[in-house]
Amino acid sequence: MNDPEVTEPQPSPHAPRPPARKASVVAAVAATALAKAKWAFVALKSLSLGKLLLTSGSMLAMIWFEAMRYGWAYGVGFVLLIFIHEMGHAVAIRHAGLAAGYPVFIPFFGAMISLKGQPRSPKEEARIALAGPIAGAAASAACAGIFLLTHQRLFLALAYGGFFLNLFNMIPMPPLDGGRAAAVFSKQAWWIGLVVLAGLFLVTRTPQLLLIGIFAAMNGFRSATHHVETTPEVRREVAASYFGLCVFLALGAHLTHQVLSE
């Protein structure tokens, strides 16, 4: 009698793949993904992604910081005003033929933009320093104008914040913008500016003017100047721009604060 033929069972088409084969498939997919990620990283690195992330990340952090205090609408608007201030510096830097870095935002302190290179003259450095507050003053005035058209107090608050912050930047103390511009002033310019600012402080009671006035008096009393060498014309031009901008910002801060207080 013949023994029955024994046949081995055939694997089902729906049976799971062996673990070894699964591992090889996963490894192949992972290797492909890593290879693509490597090329993507190289491409993004060439676009200075790290610097862009630093700027955007610090900008978002500062928006969040301001929003926690005064609301998201004010936070976004206030950080945009600071961004415009920094872009004023960037435009002046590039106009001078120098390279500007990406702006970095620092909650509570403001922002900064790096200057890659050395200005060719004291006048050029002063123009770069004052370009930020000039752009910030213009943006703050635009917010005040929008308030007059719409009567939305958000824009009035932004205008006051912009005037206040840019005037603080005019304090003639490094590393603030005012400190970089004031290096070319003569003693006579300090005394004239002190008289102007003292009269304006009596009217507005703006605290930044008191600080600027203290530095003006300190520089006016110095018997020997430590300022950089330049022409009298440059000294007069920079001093007129500096003190004129201080007056504009102080009046803007004073008037917007008065309306906010009503």
Characterization of the model:
The protein is mainly alpha-helical and 262 residues long. 72% of the residues lie in helices and 4% in strands. A two-stranded antiparallel sheet has the order 1-4. It has a two-stranded antiparallel sheet with strand order 2-3. Helix 4 runs antiparallel to helix 5 (153-169). The longest helix has 30 residues, at 232-261. It is globular and about 45 Å long.
Which helices and strands occur, and which strands form pairs?
Layout: H1 19-46, H2 49-70, H3 72-95, E1 99-100, E2 104-106, E3 110-112, E4 115-116, H4 122-150, H5 153-169, H6 177-181, H7 187-204, H8 207-221, H9 232-261
Antiparallel strand pairs: 1-4, 2-3
Helix pairs in contact: 2-3, 3-4, 3-5, 4-5, 4-9, 5-9, 7-8, 7-9
